[in-house]
Each structure stands twice: as C-alpha cells, then as structure tokens.
Design goal:
Layout: H1 4-8, H2 12-16, H3 54-74, H4 76-83, H5 88-104, H6 106-117, H7 119-140, H8 148-179, H9 186-217, H10 227-238, H11 252-269, H12 291-306, H13 311-317, H14 323-328, H15 348-370, H16 377-403, E1 414-421, E2 428-431, E3 451-454, E4 459-468, E5 471-480, E6 484-492, E7 495-502, E8 513-519, E9 525-528, E10 534-537, E11 542-543, E12 547-549, E13 552-554, E14 557-561, E15 564-568, E16 571-573, E17 578-587, E18 590-599, H17 610-633, H18 640-664, H19 669-693, H20 699-726
Parallel strand pairs: 1-6, 8-17
Antiparallel strand pairs: 1-3, 2-4, 4-5, 6-7, 8-11, 8-12, 9-10, 9-14, 13-16, 14-15, 17-18
Helix pairs in contact: 3-8, 3-9, 3-10, 4-5, 5-8, 5-18, 6-7, 6-8, 7-8, 7-10, 9-15, 12-20, 13-18, 13-19, 15-17, 16-17, 16-19
Amino acid sequence: MVGDKARGEMNAFQRNESKETLFTFISAGDDPPKGDFPLQKKSPKLCGSNYPLSIAFIVVNEFCERFSYYGMRAVLTLYFLSFFHWDENLSTAVYHAFSALCYFTPVIGAIMADSWLGKYKTIIYLSIVYVVGHLIKSVGAIPSLGNQAVHVVLSMVGLFLIALGTGGIKPCVSAFGGDQFEEEHTSERSKFFSIFYLSINAGSLISTFVTPVLRGQTEPQPCESHLDYNIFSVVFIAGSGLYRKTPPQGNVLLEVCKCIGFAIKNRLKNRSREIPKRDHWLDWASEKYSKQLIGEVKMVTRVLFLFIPLPMFWALFDQQGSRWTLQATKMNADFGIYVLQPDQMQFLNPLLILVFIPIFDLGLYPLINMCKFNFTPIRKMATGMILAGLAFGLAAVIEVKINETDMPRLVPKESLIRVLNLAKNPVQVTIQDKDLFQQPVESFQNPAEYSKLILNGEQQSLHFTLQQQGLTLAFNYTVKEKSVYSLIVFEAEGSLSSRLITDLEAKPENGLAAVRFINGLSQDVNLTIDSKRFIAVQKNYSASEYSLLERDMYNNGKCITETGEFPLELGLLDFGASYTVVITNISGGTVETWKSEDIKANNVHMAWQLPQYLLISAGEVMFSITGLAFSYSQSPASMKSVLQAGWLLTVAVGNTFVLIVAEAAPMAQWAEFVLFTVLLFAVCIIFSIMGYFYVSVDPEDLEEKEEKRETSSRGNMIGLVTQKTKL
C-alpha cells in the first residue's frame, strides 16, 4: 500500500477487505522512485480539497469490478448445477478451481505492472480481457446456442479470462490510486484507501444480495452483473488525461525469486566438505546479491514459513460459495416477509465483517487487554482458525438434520414402494414372499413413508394380491433395483384395478418443488398450473410426468375438460417437496383434488445457517486482518509486495485443496464437513506450535544491526590490511 502512514495504521475500513489488497505488489509505493523519470503533473482537485479528481474514476471502477466479480461468483455454483446439470462435487471442484486461479494470477499482474507496462496500461489491458471474459461467459449461457459442449467450452474460456483479468488488476488498482497523491498529502492518501476498501465491500455486499434475485427471475446465467463493469471500464479510460502514471520500476518479487534460486543452485554446486559452511542457506547467494537484499529475504522467509499452514483456513472459508450454498438449497428459505434465494446467504459475510470490525477493535480487543491477557497476533489467528472449524462443525450438524427428510440411499437389489388407495374402501395389499403392508391401506391415506423391497437381482417380477370386501385380484409387475414406485389402486367398471408408476428417487434440486397429476376422471384433461405450465393427462387414472416449480402458492390454475374450464387450486408447493395430485371429481363448478406428499418438504430453516456465518466471519476478522497486519509488520519496507504474493497464494492453495477433496475423495456431505473441521483443528495446533517458537522482530532494528555489522566488518578488514602493510 502506498504511503508510510497508510501502511502503518490500518483503520476499520481498510481492514474490511480480508483477502483483497491491503498492501500491493509495488516497489514504488514503499520507497521514492529512483532514477530520472518525467515530472508528474498535478491532477485537478475535488471541490477545492487535496483529493485528486482522478480518484473518483478509480473508486467507481473498483466498485463496479467488485460488484461484477462477486455477483457472478455468488451464482456460479448453482449455474453449474442447474444449467450444466453437473453433480455437486464437480460443480464445487470447478468453482474452487476458478477461485484458485483468481488468486494465482495477481502475481502475473504485478510482474506486468512493475516490470513491463506500468500500472495504468496493465489495468486497461487486463480490464479488456476481463470484459471479454464476461461477454464470452454470457454467450455461453444462452440456452439456444449450440449443445452443452459448446456451453461448457465457452463458459470455461470466459471464466479463465475473468480470472486472468480480475486477478491481474487486483494488485494494481489500489496502488495506482495511491500514486495519484503528492507525497505531502499522506493523510488524504490514507483516507482514500478507506474509501477504496469501502467501495470493495459495498460492491460485494450489494451484488451478493441483488444478483441471486436476478438469477431467480431469469435463466440461471451468471452474467447479470457484468454490464455495469463494461460501462464503467469506459469511464475509467475516459479519465486517462487526469491520471499520474508512474513508469515501471522493476519487480522485487522477481529479484527475491532469483536470489533464492541462485542460493539453492550455488549450495548444490558446493557440497564438498572442504568448502566452509555458511550461517544461513541464503548466504550462498552472496556471490551475486547484496547483503542487504539477502538479509531482507531472510526476514521474509521467516514469515513465509508461518504461511505454510494457512491455506487450510481458506479451504474452509471459501466454501461459503459452494458447499454452504448447496446446503442452503436443501433448507426452508421462507422468512415470512421475504423468501431468500440460497445463494443470497453469502451476503451475510461482508455485512458481518463491516459490523464485527468496529466491535472487535473498539470493544473486544480492549476488553481482553484490560484483563491483562497477552492476545498476540499468533493467538488471534489461531482463535480465528478455531472459530472457522466450529462453523464447519455446526454445518455438519445441520447437514445431518437436513438428511432426515431425504429419500433413503438405495443399494443394489433394493427398491422402495408405497400404496396409494384411490378406491372407496380399505384395501389389503400382499406381495408374494415379502412381509409388507400388514394392515389394510385406508382410502386416500397419505403414506407416512416408503417400504423397502429386497429383490433377488437387478430386476424381479413380483406377484401382487389385492383384497377388498371379499374380492381378491392378482397382478404381476416387474420391479427394478434402485427405483422408487407407487402402486395406485382404484376402481374401474365396478372392480379393483391398479397401476405401478415410478416416483422420484431424490429430492428436487435447488429447493424446487415437484408435482405430478393422476387423472381420476373418465375424460382427458389439460391443466394450467401457471402462465408457463401446460400439462395434458389422459383419462382413467393415467399419471403425468413430474413438473418442477418454484416454491409458491398455486391457486390460480385451470383444468380444461370436454365439459368446460374449471379453476384448479393446488395450495402451497413447498421447498424440496414432491407431490402427487389426484383429480377425483368435478362438482359444483370446481375441481376436487387430493394431494399426497411423496417426499417431505425441507423442514430445516435457512436461519440455522446464521450461527455458522457468524463464527466464520468472526474467524475471518481475527485470522485474515490480523495475519495481514502481522506479516506486514514483520517484513522490511521493500519486501511487503513479496508477502502479499505469499498471502494471496495461500488463498489459491486452499481452494486447490477443496477441489482435490471434492473430486478425489467424494463422501457424505456431513462427513466432509467433519473432515475439514478436524483438519483445520490439526493445522491450528501445528500453527500454534510454530508460532510459539517464532520471535517477533522489528525489520528496522534488524536492518540497523546488519548495517553496524557490515561497518564493523569493513573496519576489521581495513585494520588487517594496514597491519600487513607495516609488516
């Protein structure tokens, strides 16, 4: 981050953006530029203040970019699930692959800006890449364009370009904003960063709430939020004449990598025992690099070593947009006055961050200090890990409760069956060699649950016997394994008859409701559920296919028969439920129906996710903000960009770990939550041990000691030479 005061004093707004750039990949911002550069012009001021007019373009551009990015990412998992019909594991894996790429590419953007193009041109060029990525992604989401292979290819190309664009400009925009201020305006520069990070969180908060609403009203396309960034990218370019543009001045990250690489290479070349050992393995770079650079790299590697366990926190944290969103699709989202979309729950994180930061800074931390407890940065980060682990423990408990309304998982040679008695009197149902249905099935009785059938192979012909008031009828039906059936018993021409129909094997996805119709009339019917759903059902107890609908009250339907048009009322079709609606009669100008709930509705309310969001957001404040500030304080001024690279790479590695688990080790979702909880607790213990042996340092003190040691060494060398001359 540009400016010593801005670097040293992170205020509340600066801390809001946990994973974004709190300090950037720049060398110019840490030390005054060296060399002969063109004199930078002064930008016009905002309303007579010391704020350059150019920062207005930068702040608006950042708000729109973050709105676009977070809005698209919020609906991405459900887009994969609904539009591509991928399973949950593949959707999760691709989501985290995209997230990981977004945090690998900032290194590329930093190198481009500092070593080649400069910040302004890097932002412009990669913004174009970003916009093109969104356009390709949007084209790939048009249902009528090509087959699924075309959609997937276009979407993946678009996501790659988006990751390259958003990641590439991430380290440049805030630094470019800082470059707009003259050196004497450090106070205004610091306040600019507050406004800058506020715009980031505002874009994130608004888009994660609004974009899922747009998704729910249209086709599941994650392209609703890109138009604003397309427009304001043009606005950013329009402000070109106002910007102060610093030329590229070299990237310290490359120098550090070269120094480390040379040290390792030189050490491997000099493995002979006759060669004297050196105090530190990085000292093997002294033949080519200065002692100052080597000393600073030593300080950085001490902190980077502490970064090794950190990816596990991000592996849990970033699942808010994947596994937690998928969990929300299986919950009841009705809050009375408003029905939340499953992916809208993500807006709680930026909202809670804005709430928690002042509470922690002004309340919790001072209270802990008053209790004379030494709450060191390492302890804060470890506490953040524990809170994130507890959040996933709660998620596992909720997942177990959600599974109680799921259909049983069937294994080979197993099927499920139930009986729907649509006759006027109770019916006794018997299946040969199966001990099921001990009691008669009452007329229009809603079965409590399915009964399990054990077959002798992949399929089996079963003999059914129906008994009613002394009348016995027999039927044979072939039943397949891993299937779910309903045996429909009804009266036809004064006698009993039956049909065996196939039911849904699992809950409808994404919180939708499923409904099918059985026509008990002696004439065909055409049904209208809403303005978009038209269903034709043949007479004499024929059954329609299931239709998937949004959760709602459906009381404005129509039933059209040979004799006329009649109103059709279905009532509430709830989240995740499956229904069979039987049309029994037409009387008094209305359609009489009977509704059976095949699969129970989601009965765990989405509000139960609130505690886990509270815990993981509190954990983020303690872990991320503290970790950034701590690592920033432990590095010399010229190496802060290197630590920023290391910090962003921990996010990338964490997301990579999630996609590996999702694809390589699929398991029950509650078990996966428990696995991540245990892994984070184990990593927390390792990190705490590493932190216990870590000794905090002041980089300036180490630099002073290094200078004194070099001065002393030079003095000794001069003395030796003089003595030799006298001899």
